[in-house]
Amino acid sequence: MIVYEVFVRSFRDLNGDGIGDLRGILDSLDYLEDLGADVLWLTPIFPSPSYHGYDVTDYFNVNPLYGSLDYFKEFMENVHERGFKLILDLPLNHTSSLHRWFLERPEYYIWADDKTDINQRRGWDGAFVWHPSDRGYYYGLFGSCMPDLNYSNPEVVERALEIVRFWTAMGVDGFRFDAAKHIYDDHDKNIEFWRKVSYEIRSMNTDAILVAEVWDSPDVNLEYSRILGYTFNFHVFGSLKKSVIESNPWSLKSALEETQDLLVYSFNFISNHDVNRIASDIPDERRRLMAFSLLLSLPGVPVLYYGDELGLPGVYDPSFPEDVVEPFPWYETLCGVGQTRWKSVRFSKPFHGFSVEYQSAHENSFLKKVKELLSFRKENEWIEKARLEDLKIEGSKLSYRLAGKEELDFVHDFLNLTTIVNGMSLIR
Ligand code: ACG
Q1: Is 148 a known active-site residue?
Q2: What is residue 327's DSSP assignment?
Q3: Angle of helix 250-258 relative to helix 234-246, nearest 10 degrees?
């Protein structure tokens, strides 16, 4: 599998409103196939008042800006016919504050009582988690527009199971479970919840691809992967980048050791919609190719973030996260059929050589070089489930053997920025 994360609103627009849509995605399958992707992860496609869609107002429908429920079925059949799989991004931890449940079913949400410390802050950045309303304070880990669901209420658990049954019955191939570790404030209860969800889905589709978004320690990640099948490997993500940036293999080596048991259950990535784009963290093209070559030389499932294959820059600002979800540049002019234009661009400027149009026409483009790395991975799909052996460092070189159906010896030189596989250079 090679997963491609599509930020739906920004990818390809076919109805001419400047906002990406499902028809647009269908229309881009030639491009994605040519790239080498075979699994599409769509950021939330449900009705939502926000640009990102993580605050859902109806879990049983499709955002009218992206298509309709009827069209979704047609879309999915076409996607399947073309040999792609489809993963939906599903935020179950919270809804939108505009979801009718929030008005009609207060018992589905979490309300402060006399003992609650309403000044409680979020662990990682100090944001407030209790929000005032005319019905009292409610809990919303991701802000006041996104009240958390109360999973201590068995009815809410049943609602979540209904949602996964609905989409699984329709034929989607899997889910990315957003904010998976936040369902309860208790690790064991979370695990129990995801066990139920996983059981429900797998009783309908044994091959479902289920991936938990859990930004936590390797042992916690491992538990989620055991239940669901996959988790994102945040450890390899951070360390891979650090090693490439610092020309020092030690950080990646430790992450690979720490997540040894997790590797084949990992979704590996070098950027996504919550962090800086890789081109902003690693502006030098050669060095960035090194990051791609590592991503594609590890056991687990590689995930590409839309636009990274073009070298799009983008710096993640938590108070303005839109800079990493800019319109995918099909054309140098940033206008034409298919081009999304829902926001102005700060990074993916016109006439900067970022576009598919430009890079497809130039032999030495970043896109072409990334494609070569991807085709190596495509030819060696067994890597996904390979054992990683003989991991060692000599000076600036990290070497290991991948063993599975075949065997390959890798030497990644972090100083000279080369990857040698069985004596052959991988990066052009
Ligand atoms: C998901 C989505 C994200 C989405 C939401 C809400 C959740 O990917 O796009 O936001 O639906 C936390 C959550 C994640 C969440 C991110 C944004 N992502 O756990 O589920 O926030 C620490 C914490 C993590 C935390 C991370 C954030 O532990 O829990 O993630 O910080 O930076 C080391 C440590 C590790 C530490 C990291 C980083 O690796 O080991 O523990 O993680 O350093 O410091 C949506 C939109 C957003 C919008 C939001 C309201 O996409 O744009 O702002 O909604």
Answers
A1: no
A2: P
A3: 170
| Catalytic member of 5, 13, 213, 308 | 213
Which candidate, 215, 253, 254, 209, places its Cα nearest to that of 232? Answer: 215
Q: Return the best residue to mutate from 43, 57, 94, 124 for the ligand 1 pocket (most ligand atoms within 8 A of CB).
A: 124
Residue found by looking up tokens 């149009």 in the block: 357
CA distance 101 to 222: 33
Q: How far is the CA of 194 from the centre of ligand 1 (A)?
A: 19
Contacts 24+ apart (CB under 8 A), 67-71: 67/21, 67/22, 67/23, 71/22, 71/23
Choice from 9, 48, 54 to test ligand 1 binding pocket (greatest atom count within 8 A of CB): 54
| Cβ 175 vs Cβ 167: under 8 Å | yes
Q: How far apart are CA 341 and CA 10, in angstroms?
A: 8
C-alpha 382 – ligand 1 centre gap (Å): 31
Question: What residue has token string 């483009």?
Answer: 365
Nearest to 375 by CA among 29, 30, 35: 35
* Cβ pair 161, 200 in contact under 8 A: yes
Are 335 and 15 in contact by the 8 Å Cβ rule? The answer is no
Nearest CA to ligand 1 atom 20: 179
Q: How far is the CA of 213 from the centre of ligand 1 (A)?
A: 9
CA nearest to 294, candidates 345, 347, 332, 237 = 237
Q: 178 catalytic, yes or no?
A: yes
Contacts of 15 by beta carbon, 8 Å cutoff, 6+ apart = 21, 23
Identity at 96, one-letter amino acid code: S
The residue annotated as part of the active site, out of 13, 178, 223, 332, is 178
Do 147 and 180 form a contact (C-beta atoms < 8 A)? Answer: no
SS3 330: coil
Helix axes 154-170, 187-202, angle to 10 degrees: 40
Q: What is the mean pLDDT of each run of 10 residues along the chain (428 residues)?
A: 98 98 98 98 98 98 98 98 98 98 98 97 96 98 98 98 98 98 97 98 98 96 97 98 98 97 98 98 98 98 98 96 97 98 96 97 97 97 98 98 97 97 92
